[in-house]
Amino acid sequence: MKAILAGETPLVIVLPTGGGKTLLFTAPACLEDPGVTVVVVPFRALINDLKDRLKKARIEHLEWRKGEVNPAAVVIVSADFAGSWGFLTYASLLDQKGLLRRVVVDECHLTYTASDYRPRLVQLKNLRTLSCQMVLLTATQPPMLENELGKSMLVRGARHIRASTVRRNIRYMVQQCERGKLIETAVQICRRQERRLQGQKGVVYCRSRAQCEEAAEELGCPFYHAGLLLDGRADRLERWVDRGGLIVATSALGTGVDYAGIVFVLHVGVPYGMIDFAQESGRAGRAGEAVDSVILVEDGEVERRDGSLPRMDESAMMAFIQASECRRKVMSGYLDGRETACLDIDCAACDRCGEGVAEWHGAQREYEDEWRKVRQVLDADWSTSKPLASKLSKLRLHFPNNQASQACQVKPTMTACLACLWTSLVG
Predict the structure, then answer these.
(1) Is the model's pTM score more than 0.85?
(2) Residue 115 CB partners (closer than 8 Å, separation 6+)
(3) Which residues of 215-229 are buried (b: 16+ CB within 10 A; e: fewer)?
(4) Residues 37, 69 share a domain
(5) Is CB count within 10 Å lower at the N or C end of the chain?
(6) 66 and 175 part of one domain
(7) Do 322 and 415 belong to one domain?
(8) How many domains does the chain have?
(9) Which residue, among 183, 217, 177, 224, has the nearest Cα to 44 in the 3D structure?
(10) Distance (Å, whole) CA 294 – CA 84
């Protein structure tokens, strides 16, 4: 904060997810003489979240859109427009009048990790034509990739201010499943977790929109990805935030968004890289809650990827998954440039450090044992259980999106009805 208020430029500030980066540009906007702080934001969900925060804090703000000419204490602009001629003209006029205090680029790592599929991010380097202070914020800037950021934003020689990005309250785990059973196993894991959520939230991350929608259908919960209309995305998020439970998402819900009460994160398949994984798992536990972060990997998936030439970030992710020792040590070594193992600090131990694996697999065995007992009932004579069957088959009305309840509706056998009941109890 001292460096920002002193006007040092350019600055790269690396703080952990949930580390208070928003305060670094909202506080100066309140403390300084009248002026404008521009905040460049990469995702619609994050823009909406920031606008809500500024409104609650009663900080004057606006979202820049084409044709906007008015200033505000905080001007929010989408990263897709911030490098455009229209916005640069607007910002240059503020700069010439002495009103532009600084430009803050949030989640700045995206300028080199996401520019392949979001080419407009390449234009953000045009912001360097402004004479004001430049502040770049992120929770995931590996020291070995500082040159990449320097090239993408023309900030070589910038001062880097770092804090440890280790999240002590997150327990990291990796689970294998049979090939072809990724979604089925993911659903089983989620059913077990749903019993523990009790009004809190969980996020299931998928690598594609199609996989995202498939998993959501199996779980009977909402999904979120960039293919939805803006209004539809906002409505789904609002309902999930209000009601809790699970939501299935792509990386569109992976960066910067801060919602309370997320205590479970599941990655279905290998994440795209360590930076994406740290961002997405970092959505959880923002108020210090204990969090389970699980990566579910098909047998042979890592080996199939070994045949390619992965980026440095992907290599770090593979090392995390294949680690024979502490996973937190691998993660911190890459993201912070110094290794911090679970045994070095007071934290929720990963599944390689003892505590995590015992609790996780113990809960899994408990779930499987309970289901095995239910299966034994299925051997009972159906003809002597008609009253029970009639009652159980009505449960399908309460779980219309569940696979078991659909089977119950089509053919109300004892097996289908008890499966429906079991799903209702654990879900």
Answers:
(1) no
(2) 121, 122, 152
(3) bbebbbbbbbbeeee
(4) yes
(5) N
(6) no
(7) no
(8) 3
(9) 224
(10) 39
